[in-house]
Amino acid sequence: MTEKKRILVVDDDDDLRMIIRESLESDRYEVIEAENGNIALQLMETESFDLMITDLMMPGIKGIELLNRVKQINPEIGALLMSAYGTVETAVQAMQKGAFDFITKPFSISHIESRVNRFFEYSTLKQENKQLKRQLADHKAQNKLVGQSSAALDVAYNIGIVSQSDATVFLRGESGTGKELVAEAIHDQSERSNKPFLKINCAAVPETLFESTLFGHEKGSFSGAYKSQKGIFEECNGGTLLLDEISEIPYTMQAKLLRVLQEMCIIKVGTTAEIPVDVRIIATTNRDINELISSGKFREDLFFRLNVFPIEIPALRERKEDIALLVDHFINLFKTKYKYKEKYVTPAVLDKFMSYDWPGNIRQLQHLIERAILFSGKDTEIDLHHVKFEKDPDNSNNQSQILEVMPLAEMEKKLIFAALKKTDNHRTKAAELLGVTVRTLRNKLNQFENEK
Q1: Which residues constitute the domain of residue 179?
Q2: 172 with 282, same domain?
Q3: Within this chain, do residues 214 and 329 fall inside the same structural domain, yes or no?
Q4: For position 430, what pLDDT does the model report?
Q5: How far are the Cα atoms of 13, 94, 424 from residue 105, in angstroms, in the given order?
Q6: Is position 238 within any domain?
Q7: Are residues 196 and 241 located together in one domain of the fold?
Q8: Do 168 and 102 share a structural domain?
Q9: Among the four residues 8, 54, 260, 442, which has the most C-beta atoms within 10 Å?
């Protein structure tokens, strides 16, 4: 049997309360009366209600004030306001405060019954819509996060827990492990899923522009500030902000970021006015954050503020039982992209994958599968000669010969420009390929420029 919906009727008119209660009491509704706002609040503290029907003008606590205080106790409760002094302005005010509907006295019993029924129909549809969105988000997350290993399932379990809150999340893991996908899955499964999901690579932002990038600036606040600009915090208001490679944030900015995380207010460059923001923070790093704290490069208090809900993303070598699933996933992805009907890897290829350590993790596997599909062309079978690892052992002798005859500085320069060429001058991807930060890469390029 379906549990009855509980309704609280608040009015100083005894007769009206009784009429409403008798008309609504049925197999569907249980109705409780309160003769004023104080009694209503006492009941709200101890009992659970689905809907409150309250008079607007009562001795003591008025209807609008009661609505505000009840919403603080139970944000999900529905509210139907009634008054003999109804105006459009009052109705608008009531709706802005969270009332579902507004009804003007005198009203017929059938009128209030239809309003109550309509509220619960709306409430049911809203709940079903939430469940549908949750199912879609779960499906979307499952498509992104492939794996059945205990390590992968632990990550999925943590995503399911933390996505139901606004807790700050700190994701740790090597480059290529899928930290950004985990962040997206948390956002997709949260109540913020219909709000912006924005990301910023902290290593890619020049130190001089960091504050403006995060918090925005006013026109004329610095050289080149030709117009006012919102920062990423303001652009992301209501949503989720991914601070990727948070360990690379300049030390001078760390105290300012900490203040924003504590107070959820930003101050644009060139102003003193505080702007409130509502942003859920997810931070990532692939570095040893404890070592950075010990060496004085990262503030411990900022780390504690970010590390509310830590999630460790395992390296691919720690979850090799997922490799076959990941291979199938990427083959399906790229055979569709390149319009091939059928592709599969041979057992020899899978054996090689299982014996490899995957220093570039899942991203390396993804790129390798894409190249293998392109190399295989019209062949249905992907064999060992189609698989080209970034560091092919067959080329080790050639590399040794190069190192013997080339100065280290020249070799470094060649490697950097080769990485930039391979990534179409995408500095972040080139830095990942080289195993350095974007800031280090940028400094090296500036050094090469000054040497000309």
Answers
A1: 145-314
A2: yes
A3: no
A4: 80
A5: 12, 15, 70
A6: yes
A7: yes
A8: no
A9: 54
How far is the C-alpha of 420 from the C-alpha of 8, rounded, in Å? 67
Q: Are 209 and 323 in contact (CB under 8 A)?
A: no
Yes or no: say if 78 and 121 are a contact pair by the CB < 8 Å rule: no
Q: Which helix (H) or strand (E) holds 234?
A: helix 232-235
What does the mean pLDDT of the chain come to? 84
Helix spans in 54-108 (H):
63-73, 88-96
Same domain? 149 vs 37:
no
C-beta neighbour count of 365 within 10 angstroms? 21
Q: Are residues 265 and 343 in the same domain?
A: no
302 and 194 inside one domain: yes
Do 59 and 96 lie in a common domain? yes
pLDDT confidence of residue 417: 82
Tell me the per-residue pLDDT of 136-192, one tens digit each, with 9 for 90 and over. Answer: 555 555 556 788 899 999 999 999 899 989 999 999 999 999 999 999 999 998 989
Structurally, how many domains does the chain consist of? Answer: 4
Lowest mean pLDDT among 20-34, 141-155, 231-245, 346-360: 141-155
Q: Is residue 447 included in any domain, yes or no? A: yes
Q: How many CA atoms lie within 13 A of 31 on its CB side?
A: 20
Q: Which amino acid is at 232?
A: I
DSSP string, 269-319: BT---EEE---EEEEEESS-HHHHHHTTSS-HHHHHHHTTEEEEPPPGGG-
